[in-house]
Amino acid sequence: MTIIPNTTVVIPCYNEEKGISNAEYSNFLNNNPEVLICFVNDGSKDNTLAVLTVLKEKHPTQIQILSLEKNAGKAEAVRAGINHCNLHFQHRYIGYLDADLATTLEEFIELRNYLQGEIVFSFGSRIRKIGSIIERENSRFLIGRVVATFISNILDIKVYDTQCGSKLFTREISEQVFEKEFISRWLFDVEIFYRMIHLFGKEKAIKKMIEVPLKLWVEKGDSKVKFTYGFKLWFDLFEIQRKYKKIAKNLSNTNA
Known about the structure:
Layout: E1 7-13, H1 22-31, E2 35-42, H2 48-58, E3 63-68, H3 74-88, E4 93-97, H4 105-109, E5 121-125, E6 133-135, H5 138-155, E7 166-170, H6 171-177, H7 188-200, H8 202-207, E8 209-213, E9 216-218, H9 229-255
Parallel strand pairs: 1-2, 1-4, 2-3, 5-8, 6-9
Antiparallel strand pairs: 4-7, 5-7
């Protein structure tokens, strides 16, 4: 049977044996037959692959499993999944979401409603506002705001939350954004924005992206990012900024 999904969701998984809710995934797939989920097993050392295999047996036409032999990090797991699905399926939209479903699949799929006209990239944002439920440890929230403000400044665009793992693209733009490897295993989201800016120019890129405040985001379990990464994070940001400034300069010289 040929699978022709409207939307494909890539879910990177590393040691998610206890974090994957079979019931949530099954319920969503039963109600959304036009959606394909591609789980990328990123070299897990626990029984993640076995859990995913059981889930695929329940939904053989709506679930794909891409298993990487060695842990490559979230950036490469997402990139591998998106490139694999773009090669094998004819979806209109493709994006990625965290396996713990801090953002629900139902809310994630609503991001495609914004991919109209010029908009080719929509992404969820954990904005605490009246009417929303954003549950996050205060310490992580405060650290996240410092990092997010710094990122917004180096990108020179007004974006509140680059790091929320809930992003959706048109197929065509995903092929360009995810073509090359990323510098950082965890801050690749920042590079996505840089790549959009380099593809279209800052002013035009802003018109092609939309930040969508989430109604519900609930932090679940422990972060896969080690505490010690807090120190390397700033080095990664420096390297990302340096590389993409160099690319921008080269593009400017080429167009001159």
